[in-house]
TrEMBL record:
<dbReference type="InterPro" id="IPR039506">
    <property type="entry name" value="SPOB_a"/>
</dbReference>
<keyword id="KW-1133">Transmembrane helix</keyword>
<feature type="domain" description="Histidine kinase">
    <location>
        <begin position="428"/>
        <end position="531"/>
    </location>
</feature>
<dbReference type="InterPro" id="IPR004358">
    <property type="entry name" value="Sig_transdc_His_kin-like_C"/>
</dbReference>
<feature type="domain" description="PAS">
    <location>
        <begin position="216"/>
        <end position="261"/>
    </location>
</feature>
<dbReference type="Pfam" id="PF14689">
    <property type="entry name" value="SPOB_a"/>
</dbReference>
<keyword id="KW-0547">Nucleotide-binding</keyword>
<keyword id="KW-0597">Phosphoprotein</keyword>
<dbReference type="Pfam" id="PF17203">
    <property type="entry name" value="sCache_3_2"/>
</dbReference>
<dbReference type="Pfam" id="PF13426">
    <property type="entry name" value="PAS_9"/>
</dbReference>
<dbReference type="InterPro" id="IPR016120">
    <property type="entry name" value="Sig_transdc_His_kin_SpoOB"/>
</dbReference>
<dbReference type="InterPro" id="IPR035965">
    <property type="entry name" value="PAS-like_dom_sf"/>
</dbReference>
<dbReference type="InterPro" id="IPR029151">
    <property type="entry name" value="Sensor-like_sf"/>
</dbReference>
<feature type="transmembrane region" description="Helical">
    <location>
        <begin position="179"/>
        <end position="198"/>
    </location>
</feature>
<dbReference type="InterPro" id="IPR000014">
    <property type="entry name" value="PAS"/>
</dbReference>
<keyword id="KW-0902">Two-component regulatory system</keyword>
<keyword id="KW-0472">Membrane</keyword>
Length: 531
C-alpha cells in the first residue's frame, strides 16, 4: 500500500487511460469479430447460392450440357463468374453426377462423391451446405439446373459455388487488423492526452504528487490544531475559507457554518477586506470583539502579482494581560518578601541596639508587640485561610503594604477552605491582587492609608471583600468602572478591574461596588462554589 501511494500521478493517469482504451479495444474487437464472422458467413452463403442460381439459369449452360461440350462452350463463362465472385470453385454436374466443370481438370469426367447432390437432383431444391475437403472447410451453395422440354421440366444437373472458410476468416482478420491499427492510434492519442492532462494537473497542484498533497493536508491540520493563536483566511472574494480551533474558541464560534460567509458578516470590526484591496501587510492591529481585546496581524496572499486572499493571525490581549498580571503578582510577592526581609532586618538592628544599650525592658516590649501582631496575622492566614494560593497572595500584599507604609488589615472573621478546582490560580490572583492594588491606589494620598481584606466561604458562595478609606467612587463612574481602558491613573491602564469582571463573570459570579458612609469604596465579589 505504501509503494502504491508513491506511484506518480502521471503513471496512474496513463495507466488508467491505457487500461481503459485497451479494454475497450479488446471488447469492441471481440464483438466486431463475432458479428463480422456471422454477417460475412451469411453474406457468403447468400452469394454462393445466388451465384449458383445465376449460372443455372444461363441458356449457354443448358446448351452445353445437351451437347455434352461444357468445356468448350461454358468453361470460360464459369471461370469469369468464379473470378467475379472470388469463389474457390464452381462445380457443374449432370443428372448422373458426372462432373462437367471443376477447378481441378483431373476431376472432369469423374463421378461426384458429394452426398449433398441428393436434395438438388431429387427434390430440385436450392440449399447451402458446409462440407470438408482436403483444402479445408467449404461453404457451398448448390442449385439444380432445370431443363425445359415444353410440356414438362426436369433436373438435368447441378451447379455448386464453393468458398473456402479460411479465405472468409482471412478477410475478417484483415478487417480486424484495420480496426486494431485505428485503435492503436486512439491509444497513442489517449496517452499523449494523458501526458498533457497530468502536466496540467501538476501545474494546478504546484508540482506536488497526490500523496504529497495528502501529507501536506494532514500536517496542515495538525499544525493549525496545535497553534494557540487564532488563524483565519479569506479568498479574493472576501469569503471565509479557513478558521482553526483556537480561533473558534477565542471568538466563541461553536458552529462550522461560518465557512463560505463573507468576512464582514462574521467579523465586521476586522478590516481584512482593506488588506485584500491594498495588498499591504498590517501588524499589531488592536480590535475589540465581544468585550475582548485582540491583536491582529494581516498578511496578503500574493500570486502572480495579484492578491488572491488574506491570512490573519491573532491573539487575545486580555489573556496576555492576565498573564502579565499574574507575573506582576508573583513579582510583587517577591518584592513583598524582600520588603519584609528588609523590615525585619531593621527590627533586628533595633533589638541589637536596645541590648547593647542595656534597655532590656524596651527590647522585651518591642518583641511582645511584634509577636502579637505576627501571631494575629499568622492565626488568620494559616489557621483560618486554608488555601495556599490565597495565603501566598496575602503575604505578598502584606509585604507590599509594609513597604508603602500602608495598613493591610485582614478581617479576623475571614475563613476559607481550599478553593474549588474550577477557580484556577491565575483567576484568584487576578481577582484578589487587582482589588487590593486598586485599594492601595485609592488610599495613596490619604493621611491614614488603610485597606481591609475579607474572605469567607460560608453558604454556596465564596465572598471576597476589599474596603479602603479613600474618596470612594462617584455614582456616574460606577457603570464605566469595569470598562476596558477606563482608568484615572494615565494611559495604558484600565485593565485590572476589566480583567476582574471578566474572570468573575466567566466563573458565573458577580461583583458589586458600594461606598462607605464615611468615604471609601467597598468591592464585593461573589463566586459560586459549584458551576
Amino acid at each position: 500500500m505504501y509503494k502504491f501511494k508513491k506511484i506518480t500521478l502521471q503513471t496512474k493517469v496513463l495507466g488508467l487511460i491505457s487500461t481503459l482504451i485497451l479494454l475497450i479495444i479488446i471488447l469492441l474487437a471481440s464483438i466486431f469479430a463475432y458479428l463480422q464472422s456471422v454477417d460475412t458467413r451469411d453474406q457468403v452463403e447468400q452469394l454462393a447460392l445466388q451465384s449458383a442460381k445465376t449460372i443455372s439459369l444461363m441458356p449457354e449452360l443448358k446448351v452445353a450440357i445437351e451437347k455434352n461440350d461444357l468445356e468448350a462452350h461454358f468453361r470460360p463463362i464459369a471461370e469469369q463468374v468464379k473470378d467475379q465472385v472470388q469463389a474457390d470453385n464452381i462445380i457443374i454436374e449432370n443428372r448422373k453426377e458426372i462432373i462437367y466443370s471443376h477447378a481441378d481438370p483431373s476431376q472432369v469426367g469423374e463421378k461426384s462423391l458429394d452426398h449433398t447432390n441428393y436434395h438438388a437432383l431429387i427434390f430440385g431444391g436450392s440449399n447451402n451446405f458446409e462440407v470438408y475437403r482436403e483444402s479445408g472447410s467449404i461453404l457451398s451453395g448448390k442449385v439444380p439446373i432445370i431443363g425445359d422440354y415444353g410440356d414438362y421440366t426436369r433436373v438435368i444437373g447441378t451447379v455448386s459455388v464453393e468458398f473456402l472458410e479460411k479465405d472468409i476468416y482471412k478477410n475478417i482478420v484483415s478487417r480486424i487488423k484495420t480496426i486494431i491499427t485505428a485503435s492503436m492510434l486512439v491509444l497513442i492519442l489517449g496517452i499523449i492526452g494523458g501526458i498533457y492532462l497530468t502536466k496540467s494537473i501538476r501545474k494546478d497542484t504546484l508540482g506536488l504528487e497526490p500523496h504529497e498533497i495528502s501529507s501536506l493536508y494532514r500536517e496542515r491540520s495538525a499544525i493549525l490544531l496545535s497553534i494557540k493563536e487564532g488563524i483565519i483566511a479569506i479568498d479574493q472574494k472576501g469569503l471565509l475559507t479557513l478558521i482553526n480551533h483556537s480561533a473558534k474558541m477565542m471568538l466563541n464560534f461553536y458552529e462550522d457554518d461560518y465557512i463560505g460567509q463573507h468576512i464582514q458578516n462574521v467579523l465586521p470590526n476586522v478590516k481584512i477586506d482593506e488588506v485584500l484591496r491594498s495588498g499591504k501587510t498590517l501588524h499589531n492591529i488592536e480590535v475589540t470583539i465581544n468585550d475582548k481585546m485582540f491583536i491582529f496581524n494581516l498578511i496578503p496572499i500574493i500570486e502572480n502579482s495579484q492578491v488572491v486572499g488574506v491570512v490573519s493571525s491573532f491573539r487575545d490581549k486580555t489573556e496576555l494581560k492576565k498573564l502579565i498580571d499574574t507575573i506582576t503578582e508573583v513579582r510583587d510577592y517577591s518584592e513583598g518578601l524582600r520588603a519584609q526581609t528588609h523590615e525585619y532586618s531593621n527590627k533586628l538592628y533595633l533589638l541589637s541596639g536596645y541590648l547593647q544599650l542595656e534597655r532590656y525592658q524596651d527590647a522585651f516590649e518591642f518583641i511582645q508587640k511584634e509577636s502579637t501582631i505576627h501571631h494575629h496575622r499568622n492565626r488568620i492566614i494559616f489557621n483560618q485561610i486554608h488555601d495556599p494560593n490565597v495565603q501566598a497572595i496575602l503575604l505578598g500584599k502584606l509585604g507590599k503594604a509594609s513597604e508603602k507604609k500602608m495598613i493591610l488589615e485582614i478581617d479576623p472573621d475571614s475563613y476559607v477552605d481550599l478553593l474549588p478546582k474550577h477557580i484556577e490560580v491565575a483567576d484568584i490572583i487576578t481577582i484578589i491582587g487587582n482589588l487590593i492594588d486598586n485599594a492601595f491606589d485609592a488610599v495613596a494620598h490619604q493621611a491614614e492609608k488603610k485597606v481591609t481584606f475579607s474572605i469567607t466561604s460560608l453558604g454556596n458562595d465564596i465572598i471576597i471583600e476589599v474596603t479602603d478609606n479613600g474618596k470612594g467612587v462617584t455614582e456616574d463612574k460606577i457603570d464605566s468602572l469595569f470598562s476596558l481602558g477606563f482608568s484615572s491613573k494615565g494611559e495604558d491602564r484600565g485593565y485590572g478591574l476589566f480583567n476582574v469582571k471578566h474572570i468573575v463573570e466567566s466563573l458565573a459570579g458577580t461583583i458589586e461596588v458600594t461606598n462607605e458612609k464615611n468615604g471609601g469604596a467597598i468591592f464585593t465579589v461573589y463566586l459560586p462554589k459549584k458551576v
